[in-house]
Amino acid sequence: MTAKRTPLTDLERGTPFEQRHIGPDTAAQAKMLAQVGYGSLDELTAAAVPEVIKGAEHLALPAARTEAEVLAELRALADRNEVLTSMIGLGYHGTFTPPVILRNVMENPAWYTAYTPYQPEISQGRLEALLNFQTVVADLTGLPTAGASLLDEGTAAAEAMALSRRVGKVKEGVFLVDAETLPQTVAVIETRAEPTGVEVVVADLSEGIPAEIAERGVFGVLLQYPGASGVVRDLKPVIDRAHELGAIVTVAADLLALTLLTAPGELGADIAVGTTQRFGVPMGFGGPHAGYMSVRDKFARSLPGRLVGVSKDADGQQAYRLALQTREQHIRREKATSNICTAQVLLAVMAGMYAVYHGPDGLAAIARRTHRLAAVLAAGLRAGGVELTGDAFFDTVTAKVPGRAADVVAKARKAGVNLRLADADHVGVSCDETTTREHLAAVWAAFGVEGDVDGLDAATDDALPGGLLRTSEYLTHPVFHAHRSETAMLRYLRSLADKDYALDRGMIPLGSCTMKLNATTEMEAVTWPEFGALHPFAPADQAAGYLDLIHQLEDQLAEVTGYAKVSLQPNAGSQGELAGLLAIRAYHRANGDTQRTVCLIPASAHGTNAASAVMAGMKVVVVKTAESGDVDVDDLHAKIEQHGDQLSVLMVTYPSTHGVFEEQITEVCAAVHDAGGQVYVDGANLNALVGLAKPGKFGSDVSHLNLHKTFCIPHGGGGPGVGPIGVREHLAPYLPNHPMQPSAGPETGVGPISAAPWGSAGILPISWAYVRLMGAEGLRRASQVAVLGANYIAKRLEPHYPVLYTGPGGLVAHECIIDVRPLTKATGVSIDDVAKRLIDYGFHAPTMSFPVAGTLMIEPTESEDLAELDRFCEAMIAIRAEIEKVGSGEWDAADNPLRNAPHTASRLAGKWDHPYSREEAVFPAGTTADGKYWPPVSRIDGAYGDRNLVCSCPPLDEYED
To answer: Cβ neighbours of residue 10 under 8 Å, at least 6 residues apart?
Structure first.
């Protein structure tokens, strides 16, 4: 008997990637479907997904490819990029990523698959790393409180503008921007200022603040240090004069330069902003990079974004947590001063670790070498008769070459070096950590001069002003002195990673956050130099492969969502919201409907929706939520009628924030359109729609997508992310654009939302690869299995916890909300107790108390297999039994495993005076010593940390009561 013949074509195809990405195999899916009561995935989705939104059964996408084929395609795209030595500057510089950091942070799933540290007991490693980052920023800028990173330098400066207006004494007047500010920063500020009625004035402040501007009133001033041309000047006179006018002063500063120059805080600045890109983070065609902001103590509680603070746990040990106004927009909604709900954690960790590895002496040495190269470069140009625009500089010089700037830049390019074409008469040249003597020779040749590096070095003085040389110490904490060897650094990184819980340990069932597989194949190209080493303002023809990838991804996302056009520029979901709302605002204004300023938002919406609407110059009106969790359609109609021709837009999340497919969504969209408004569908939950329905086809005009959720970019411990927007044809002229790269958006666009033309371009290969690997059918099945997983969990847990909201057929979408409030009322066991007890069972808790207080929102994603889903369900069922023990009096209400969770190894080994056993504490039902995750701290006292705000690295005994 001969073996059955298998065709060669089948053998060559191998295992489809879809089977690697989707956790439950066919047999597991059959078991899950039986539990839910359906015979197939198609039957389930036919019942769960309303008929009125269906219409994505056939996505016009390329067929799925194997991992090897996709990597080969990526390599072909990468090979089409021309990576020259970049001496363009403008806030983006070549840097060496220490391999120990590249391998053990950027390429390590223990770091890149972690989520935002909202459960701080299991996030102590990345919180310590972020505290290091904050210390670096605070020390170098001379301002005592720094945040845990912002999105980039341009948007950080825009946040500083908003902060200045909020906290300053001058409430009217202009925001004054120095002409030396980076051009992309000026453009982002102008985009952000116009909708809120702020007038931005750009002026030459080298001789002080002009009298005619001072007379108009100035609420804030932005200065660049060093300036865009490279100039280093004493900012103190301008700062002092600004303070006399009552203005808040922000300095956008280069952190590497600050190792040698007087800190902005010492010059009198109130706020410092900038980027940490040159601290070991590749340029990546513009991002992602960790922006920074630091402020004076009196503004600490108004700082936008995330702030890591030091507190203590229940045992009195030092512990870290997110402090103060973190996720402010959830608390303040339309009264929030910022829509920032994310950070650039992975990149902030890299930048902080770069400082840990090099220490203050190493950083200063890199800065001195960079400066010496620039000084020698300048001396050679001057010796050859080339005029420079300034005598004092750090790493950048601007040469005056009347009428021949383009020729100089072209000659440098032929020699493999990109220079900055400032205008027809000026060329900018920046040195960095990667600059060599050979690069100087190539630049001299492009200018038509010759130079001898050694001879010029011996004869050339430094070009830093003596009066601005730094005298204060920085990075004095032991962490910046203890890890000089690679062995020590490796062990430090491992010790921090071991403290954390990430997807490499187990399931993170966070509702609304979609913690799915970030496949290694998808990640691989991110660190290739052909993608990572490109400057965002390099000539577009040098990025032919990259731009093809970008445009292909735009087209693929447009096909998936049903929109006409997609912009990838927004570098976070919140920025995508703002971009979408600005497009709607511009559309109404183009039609003469300037009165359309009302934004309707359901009460259940994510808090960033309201904050983004206010930033877009809109008035927020809240629409009630019905008991079912759906939008209250009667209240919606009433609000539409009430506001009439003032209606601009309805923002609605679909599937809803309550985790259901609302059946009346098309009716809702039609009602808004009939009133002349637009519909914004928040794409946070697109994970339930891909391949099943297209927002652009069932009534939405614009959506932002979360590539860090649905399209597999990892969360990185709280960033990076990408929040592109898709729009219908009539809104396409109002997508973001960029002054430095005309091809990045339409000429009629609203301006740049992010500092870089294509935002966080460095991580776009991840989503491109995901779509390519899965193909149309794989993407559809991923959505179906995500819906299956959520319904499976809902059915298993329903006998033990009420499932708060359901849609058609009693089904949920890709997430479900279970209600703990009745149990809390009956037993005193809180939602916090349940979340912390899950740590003892080896899980990250689901999303707590959003969108409803006292509930857990659970999203399993399609990537978790049945064994992990069952392990989670069994843990939740066991916790329900533990709650019953408290309720019955078997366990003391004030001293039980839930109230005392999580339990640490040190607590287990110490004195034990609890009425339950050590085994019940640390090995609850179903858990074993094998693979046990031990939290490094017990429950953290958040209130203590807020009362005693410490956000950098002093020893704990320096601030204890």
So the answer is: none
Other beta carbons less than 10 A from residue 4's beta carbon: 5
Closest by Cα among 169, 153, 159 to 248: 169
Cβ-based neighbour number of residue 167 at 10 Å = 19
Tokens of 492: 């430090």
The percentage of the chain sitting over the pLDDT mark of 90, rounded to a whole number, equals 90
**CA quadruple 772, 774, 777, 780: dihedral positive or negative?**
negative
Burial class (CB in 10 A: 0-12, 13-18, 19+), 587: buried
- For residues 108, 110, 113, 117, the Cα torsion angle rounded to the nearest 10 degrees is -130
CATH number belonging to the domain at 773-946, selected among 1.10.3720.10, 3.40.50.300, 3.90.1150.10, 3.40.50.11540 = 3.90.1150.10
Flag whether pLDDT at 5 surpasses 90.
no
Closest CA to 313 of 117, 114, 124: 124
Pairing between strand 565-567 and 200-203? unpaired
CA neighbor of 77 nearest in space, from 522, 535, 523, 546: 546
Helix, strand, or coil (residue 545): helix
Taking alpha carbons only, the member of 427, 158, 126, 400 closest to residue 273 is: 158
Rounded to 10 deg, the angle between the 764-797 and 866-888 helix axes is 50
Paired tokens of 475: 């990075």
12-16, 114-118, 659-663, 700-704: range with lowest mean pLDDT: 12-16
* 714, HSE (Cβ side, Cα atoms, 13 Å): 29
What's the rounded mean pLDDT across residues 819-842?
Answer: 97
Q: How far is CA 434 from CA 279, 369, 370, 770, 847, in A?
A: 12, 10, 9, 33, 44
Query: Tens of pLDDT along 711-735?
Result: 999 999 999 999 999 999 999 999 9
Supply 452's token pair. Answer: 């001898």
The C-alpha angle 624, 630, 635, rounded to 5 degrees, equals: 35
Side-by-side strand order, sheet with 598-602: 565-567, 725-727, 702-704, 678-682, 647-653, 598-602, 619-623
DSSP 3-state of 351 = helix
Residue 957 is predicted with a pLDDT of 46
Q: Stretch 71-78: mean pLDDT, rounded?
A: 98
Q: Write the CA distances from 511 to 515, 611, 656, 785, integer angstroms.
A: 9, 21, 12, 15
Report strand pairing: 291-295 vs 271-275.
antiparallel
CA–CA distance, 809 with 739 (Å, rounded to integer): 51
**For residue 960, what pLDDT is reported?**
39
Give the Cβ contact number of residue 540 at 10 Å. Answer: 14
Would you call 664 helix, strand, or coil by DSSP? coil
Q: Identify the pLDDT of residue 110.
A: 98
In a 3-state reduction of DSSP, which class is residue 198?
coil
* 3-state helix vs strand vs coil in the chain, percent to 5: 45, 15, 40
DSSP 309: E
For residue 131 the two structure tokens come to 């505290």
Q: Shortest CA distance to 453 belongs to which of 439, 432, 433?
A: 439
Dump pLDDT digits (tens) for 776-820: 999 999 999 999 999 999 999 999 999 999 998 999 999 999 999
| Burial of 402: CB neighbours in 10 Å, binned 0-12, 13-18, 19+ | exposed
The Cα 853–Cα 802 span in angstroms is 14
Q: Closest Cα to residue 70, out of 774, 782, 780, 706?
A: 774
